[in-house]
Amino acid sequence: MKIHPFFPLLLLLASAVPAFSDPGGVPPAREITMTDCVEAALRGNIDVAVSRSEREAADLAVPMEEAVFLPRFTGDLSYSRSIGPTGSSIAGTLTIDQSAWNFEAGVKELLRSGTTLSLSFENQRLDAGT
To answer: For the residues of 44-70, what is the DSSP string, one character each?
Structure first.
């Protein structure tokens, strides 16, 4: 019977594997409860993570929708000035100097019944001189 040339090499490698293996590398077995198993499965489940983030986003959306019913305050203050030629030189002046102040303030609120309640104040002052 003829021995294959790779057989001694194979025998040498097979005998070396147990010598290099680490018998202390295997962790001891531990018992887990059904609750631990379910918690570990839920922790790694992507569908549960997506559902949790959707719920958190929905919780944040409620205050944003309720903000529609908060009152809105508005205000405006403006000033303008114009210097232009007069239509007549009878008065002795060739230009007219006009300045205008405009002030507006208001509050507007959407009631839960769908009605809009608003209160506003408008004031305008016009000064004209020569």
So the answer is: T-HHHHHHHHHHHHHHHHHHHHHGGGS
